[in-house]
Amino acid sequence: MVLRRRRQRVKAEGNWDMLFYQFWKEHALPNLIWNAKTREELREALESELRTCAQDRELSGSETIAWNHTEFEVHYPSLTDEVRVGDYYLRILLQHNQQTGSLGIDIKDPVGFFDELYRRFLTAPKSSLRCGFQLGKMKNVKLTFS
Fold first, then answer.
1. Domain count, the chain
2. What is the 3-state secondary structure (H, E, C) of 56-107?
């Protein structure tokens, strides 16, 4: 019985220099928040995963183990207070719009975004969130239909 394919040497192609350059920069975009805190949370998650793998390797003895990367997930507690509608952080989206007069990003599905924004507005527990959703709704309608 074969549980997985044999390892193959695959040459990684990509712009790794740019990846690492961008990794160390701060980003506050409507679809990405990346800063020192999120980098630290990623580092902690990776270190924890490495510790778990090392423990599993010790417990397995001579048996070969493999890491299932598809099950690896990083939770970012620093982003839990950020209101997200679809793929977009509402605070950053609205701040960017106020500063530049445009979103600076094309919303992939404006109708779906509006629908989720409206649903979230109706179910928002805090009045401050409702104001933010209302503002987001108005900006979205203006941008979608203008």
1. 2
2. HHHHHCCCCCCCCHHHCCCCCHHHCCCCEECCEEHHHHHHHHHHHCCCCCCC
